[in-house]
Sequence to fold (457 residues):
Amino acid sequence: MATVTAVTPHVKGRETAALRDVTVTDPALVRRAVRAAALGNAMEWFDFGVYSYIAVTLGKVFFPSGNPTAQLLSTFGAFAAAFLVRPLGGMVFGPLGDRVGRQKVLALTMIMMAVGTFAIGLIPSYASIGVGAPLLLLAARLVQGFSTGGEYAGASTFIAEYAPDKKRGFFGSWLEFGTLAGYIGGAGLVTLMTALLSSGDLLSWGWRVPFLIAGPMGIIGLYLRMRLEETPAFAAEVEKAEKSRPKVPLRQMVTGQWKTLLLCMGLVLVFNVTDYMLLSYMPSYLTSELKYDETHGLLVVLGVMALMMIVQPFAGALTDRVGRRPVIAAGCAGFLFLSVPALLLIRQGSLLAVALGMGALGLLLVCFTAAMPAALPALFPTRVRYGSLSIGFNVSVSLFGGTTPLVVTALIGATGNMMMPAYYMMAAAVVGGFAVWRMSESAGRPLPGSAPAVEKR
Fold:
């Protein structure tokens, strides 16, 4: 064991001290950082959950048509449009986070997300202002998408750089715990409103309530993020930069990391295709394609997400013990061989069959939600981590993840094959399997370009 002879605090009053050859992390500060990062992710996915679960109503409000499938396609089209600008947001916020700091950029993305979501709740309906309504919806979604381009990569980087090496998987898993909490909050509110309000009230004003909640949520999240200091890894990088290291241009973040970027995109593809399929698309699939009762369908999905939340921290801790690669590989194998049986169960239509099929897919998804927040930041060195991860993550999400509901709905409409969701997940699992085969194990090891991090006792 190396002998530590000097302590160099980067910021006055910091509770996490960077040592000459090791970083000692304070558990209380790490937990505070995790809460702030997870809350921002929860707010982002609260909106996505609301949008997905109330998609049928939004289609009637903003895209009047005599064809329910066309309405749903239009609504998911606006949903997918936000993902087209995510890479732009990643190209702006990622390099900015590597230059001015993770904390400042995460505060900015929180403000933009809250404003974009809150604005949706204020948009007049198509019946009131005509074509201006869907255009305003699209504009608000673009603001959300642009801000989200810097959110996940920044939040996962923030947690990874604060966490000790041997517990990075456990602490990182709470980021996706926030995602699930946001989904449950959004879906639960929609379910409650669907049960309590008449279809007329839901259509006229009730759909606005979940989006308007984003205002106070954003203020709380901003307060928590502004109270945090920069990560020890970034502070050390700033100190190094002041002496000799030049700033890294955007072009070098791509060309200098292109192999790792492709690996990142493959991992993100399987992670997000399965995530959006299960949590965003399946509620609409149950309602519009299988004619399942809307309220009961939402309750089943809520139960699956609650199950995932319970398992999530334990699965994160498991990745610290056995490694990220085995856990991710197990998820890829599961989706490859169990997607068809699970969807056949769901198509049986009974409450038990739907719950079993959805539950199986949910537990497989935990293999990704528990491992990826720690595995993805470990792909890149500190000096380009935020920027390169933002670019790779958002390009993959935009091309494959966020378009999943739209593409699968279109495939079912074109082919009439109701098993398309299973085939799509299987294809994603093949890509993910190849990526995990090529990745290196990062569990228990320092982040590239950073000193080893241990927990203060």
About this structure: The chain has 21 helices and four strands. Confidence is low (pLDDT under 50) at residues 1-19.
